Structure formats: structure tokens, C-alpha cells
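re: ur question from yesterday

yeah so i grabbed the chain u mentioned. its 331 aa long if i counted rite. heres the sequnce exactly as i have it in my notes:
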Amino acid sequence: MHQISKYLDDYDCWFSQLFPDTSFLNLVVKYTPLAKGTVLTGQFKDRSEMYLIQHDLQIDYGGNKHNYDLVVNCTDMIVAEKFRKTKTIWVQEGMIDRRTIRSRIVKAIGLPPYCSGDTSLNGSTNVCDVYCAASEGYKSYFASCGTDAKKIFVTGIPNYDNHIEFLVNDFPHRNYVMAATSDMRETYRFENRPGFIKHAAKIAAGRQLLFKLHPNENVDRAVAEIRRYAPAGTLIYHTGNTNHMIANCSELITQYSTVVYTGIALGKKVYSYFDVEDLKKLAPIQNDGTSAKNIANICSSYINFAGTKDDFLRAFAYRPEVALQQEVQYA
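ran it thru and got these C-alpha cells back, copy pasting raw so excuse formatting
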């Protein structure tokens, strides 16, 4: 969102961490542990707000200070009622969780999308006016899940659209097998972590193994498990630049993590709990880092458009800065 705002200098941009939009969600956040490990509370909320402060960005938590002309969302699973009559744009922020029986039931009976307990319904509620997707593959996916295809523009997404830049880095290790974990247990989903560690060790087959932990994980528990089940000498990182680690690895093993797209973009052999061939179709386009500008152009065009949402979708001719997939060359 910050990157997008840099191309909207003519507008008064304010920022808010995602906030509970109903009395029920407020009760869940304040009085139950169910929101622990989500972006509504805890370290993710704190880190987002610290980022805004460090970059001297204007904060309006809850969106109460002004009447806004446009609201840009990174989720359509929670869209505050106060913004339902405001112009809205949804921006894909990363990988979408796999559809489950629970998410299908939630959608079928009309429960709030967050009742799925994951991001599987993100991008498929059709409540925002315009949708900015990572790739043609994701556009087709969101359309198949219920969002009007006419609303969806393939813009690419900031942070995942110029992976070639990560090849130049100062991370000290190279040519290892890397395993990137997920926070399934912290978000109340089942995981066989010993099984995953053994799986990674089998793929490494005696080569140097490196684990990069998800930032939301219980670090002490995760480290103890790796020490117990992985070969001696396995490297473990909880912090650090994950993209640089991926750029320097020989193979990448993931569970449910957007970082698999970094590996795909950089031509690494990747493993995932998702079907890898499907992931290659969904992978964010590489457009030399122009996604933020593409999205900002849509934002400014929509703000200045005087007609209805449907009129805008019929009249707007989207022209991305870079339309073709980038071919990455390797030494």
C-alpha cells in the first residue's frame, strides 16, 4: 500500500491496519484467543503500525477521521460497512489459501468470509468495485470463485513483481536446500511438523539444509523440533531477508507460503503442499517492479471518474506499464 501511495502524490493518503468491522468481531478480538495469530491483533498489527510510524505515514485506524473518496483494500473478507458506498479497490497481497470444505460451506450458506479461518475466500467475495490480481491465472481463479471477471485487472502485485533483483545480495550461504515453514499451528490448523522436517531432510539427501521460520511461529518450539528431527548442522533463521535466502538456494521446499512464487520466478526447483504446476500458472507476473504504478493509475482514474462503477468498468482502458512476462536470465 505504501508503494502504491508513492504514485498518488496528488492525493491525501491515509493508512489503517485491518480492523474489526462489527461488534461481534470486536468481541472476538478483545475477549477470545481466536484472533491471535491474525493481522487483527498481536505482532502483525504492531509491526504494521510501527512501519507506518517509521515511514511518517498518516494513520487513521478504523477510518474515522475523514470521509474518503477511495478505499484500497488488501482483503475483501472484511470490508467495513461504512465503506460499502465508497469507491473500493482490492489489491492481491500474496498467495490465497487452498479452498477447504469449511470455506465452501461458509460461502454456500453466506457466513462472513473470515469464518473460513484462512484466506481461501480472499478475492472471491465480489464486494469491491475493482480487483487487481497478480496474474492471468489468479484472475481466472477469482472469477471461477465468484468475482465478476469484468472487475479484475491483471496488474501484478508489489513485492512479488521483480524477483530478479534478489539475485544480487550479501546473504553468506549458497547452494543449500531451503525449507520455508508456515504458521498453520499458530492459526489453529493441523500440521505434522516432524513429518515436514523429515521430508525436507530426505529431499536434501545430505546436502546443506536451511530452515527459514515463518515470522508468526513459536520460535522456541520450531527450533527444538528442527534440532531433533533434522540433520546436525542444519541452519535455522527466524529473521532475515527470505527472498535473498531463496535466491541463493538450489531447491526450495514450502508448505502454504507465497514465497514459493519467488522460487518459481527465479527458476528454482520448488516443492509445495499445493500442486506446483498450478502454482506456475498462478505465479505473479514479473514486470520490472511496475505493479504499484499500474495499481495507482487505476486508483487515480477511478477517483476522477464521475460515472457509476459499471460505467467505469465499461469505459476504462487498462494499459499496464509492462505487459509482458519478464524472462529471467541466469548465469
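noticed a couple things. DSSP finds twelve helices and nine strands in the chain. also Confidence is low (pLDDT under 50) at residues 323-331.
anyway ttyl
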